[in-house]
Amino acid sequence: MTIFSIVLIILFFGLLIAIHEFGHFVAAKSLGVRVNEFAIGMGPALLSRQKGETTYSLRLFPIGGFCAMEGEEESSDDPRSFHNKPFWKKFIILVAGAFMNFVAGLVIILVIFFLAGSPAAPVFTGVMAGAEEVLDTGLQPGDRFYTIDGHRIYFQSDAMIYLQRAGEDVDVTVVRDGEKVDLGVISLPYRLLTDENGQQVEKRGIYVGEFLEDTVFTRLQNSWYQAIDYVRMAWMGLGDIFTGAVGLKDMSGVIGITAVAGEVGQAGAEAAGLFGAVINLLDFTALIAINLAVMNLLPIPALDGGQIFLLLVNGVYHLFSKKYIDQKYLGYVNAAGFICLIALMILVAINDVNRFIL
């Protein structure tokens, strides 16, 4: 992992968090909430300027930023405080950060696709020697996978992921000559085959992936599909955590992500020089941006999703009692959630150190 990759990914992280906070800032200003300070970076202020009611500051450490709204953490009598705004305005402000992260990820993907082209399409191109019986399932060369076990397939990588997660019997729908064809449940067992290097490997025996004609429209469309794919991957990862398919030892924090980013950049450099390294790092950053959007909306105190959940709880409480929960108690819940979140981050960081450094 190069110093360049480490510095670049730290800057990307800081930028993504700053973009997140900028989303809150724009929404708050647009909806009439008083913003006391908007900061890029954390730590001591290097530069600050007061403009109207808001202080704009640039801080020492390029690791994020914050949007300090009046009445966000405590009760306030100011009619323009966050606490005194109606539910729908609070909801929009809280969602705006995650929305901006998603938009940032989508924009990065657009840049990548217009620079490097769209990924390979999930086209079935043939079978390995010894796996000819696959053709008896109804699959034909040129078929484009449309769904695998009910999951929509956009790219070659999708087909690989969902085939890897599938059993030996797979429910498949393909697009053939422009028409969807439901092949039903077909048998695609793993078998011992010889690959092109003469090595014995356990494979299903099919080749998937073909670069199709790329136009401005397909690049725009595929950029959207890739962004949706990254959302789906985030939910898939969360599902694996809750089902026990992956554990704490498999999770990565900032240290682990930085290490992976270095490996991604190195792999891109080896394949296509500096251009390949930049494209790979941009793609990794887009994945992280969209993951941040998804994770921030989880109903965990101290995250935006937790704030939204508490808004809903407060709304239901008000509906039945005609009162609101005291802001200080909501603050206690957020503080407890923040402590738990920091504890989890420390555990994951220790795991990263053990895995990548020791």
Please describe the topology of this protein.
Blueprint: H1 3-30, E1 35-51, E2 54-69, H2 87-116, E3 121-127, E4 144-148, E5 151-152, H3 156-165, E6 169-176, E7 179-187, E8 191-194, E9 200-203, E10 206-210, H4 216-243, H5 254-296, H6 304-321, H7 327-357
Antiparallel strand pairs: 1-2, 3-10, 4-5, 4-6, 6-7, 8-9
Helix pairs in contact: 1-2, 1-5, 2-4, 2-5, 2-6, 4-5, 5-7
Outline of the structure:
By secondary structure, this protein is α+β, with helices and mostly antiparallel strands. The protein is built from seven helices and ten strands.
Going by CATH, the architecture of the domain at 120-213 would be Roll
The largest β sheet comes out as:
4 strands, antiparallel
Would you list the SSEs in sequence order as H and E?
HEEHEEEHEEEEEHHHH
**Percent helix among the residues?**
40-55%
CATH superfamily of the domain at 120-213: PDZ domain
Q: Tell me the Rg in angstroms.
A: 24 Å
From the helix content, strand content and strand pairing, which structural class follows? alpha+beta
What CATH first level of the domain at 120-213 would be assigned?
Answer: Mainly Beta
Give the strand line-up of the largest sheet.
5-4-6-7
This entry's quaternary arrangement is single chain
Strand fraction equals 15-25%
